[in-house]
Amino acid sequence: METLERWKREAAERALALVEPGMLVGLGSGSTARHFIAGLGDRLTSGALDRVLTVPSSRDSEEQAAALGIPVIELPATGIDLAVDGMDEVNPALDVIKGLGGALTREKIVASSARRFVLIGDDRKRVTRLGERSPVPVEVVAFGLRRTRALLEALGARPALRGGEAAPFVTDNGNRIFDLSFPAGFAPQELAAALATLPGVVEHGLFLGMAERAFLAGEDGVRELTPERA
Hints:
By secondary structure, the chain is α/β, with parallel strands linked by helices. 29% of the residues lie in helices and 26% in strands. It has 2 domains: 2-128 and 208-225, Rossmann fold; 136-204, ACT domain (Alpha-Beta Plaits), CATH 3.30.70. It has helices at residues 2-16, 31-46, 59-67, 104-112, 145-153, 188-195; strands at 24-27, 53-56, 80-85, 89-90, 96-97, 114-122, 136-140, 158-161, 176-181, 201-204, 206-207, 213-218, 221-225. It is globular. The protein starts with a helix and ends in a 5-residue tail after the last strand.
């Protein structure tokens, strides 16, 4: 565990080098993003950076930033300069699955608002194809869950309500999450398009064609990856 946290911290440090004074930065959510936020707080406290404003993608990230004295603002209509976030899976094209932490909707709003979106994580997150190890999280409204489940099943998915029926997980937006597994696999672009049309679906955890680079840490240090296009 100590080694894994060191890798996450090393990846976060590489992304921190992209932050410049006066930037508006989107803060991701999750364990690796926490290292990025902590490092940003250290730089602002020491004076190595100044005039940096941030837009957190979850309540947890906002609370961490506030505790460190990092300025937080609402997402402006003009967008942000840089967003940095982790991932649950990443393929060679830097398409990713996100959302196992439950913040996928806000994460996608922040990432899509950034002029530069950068991923950070450890080598365990690398896959050949999306869905090898992680389900596809889908945030849905609480109303009509049974109908939404049926629509997801019609796409070939096996939806699992996160937390179960008795105590379902509730997102920062007050919604629920279905974690989708696909025994027969799936085509990411086609699935993303299909999910976007379903009533009751708020957002999905497929972040496709959004990241400009990734910093992935492992035994051989930190690798900087750019998208491999077919």
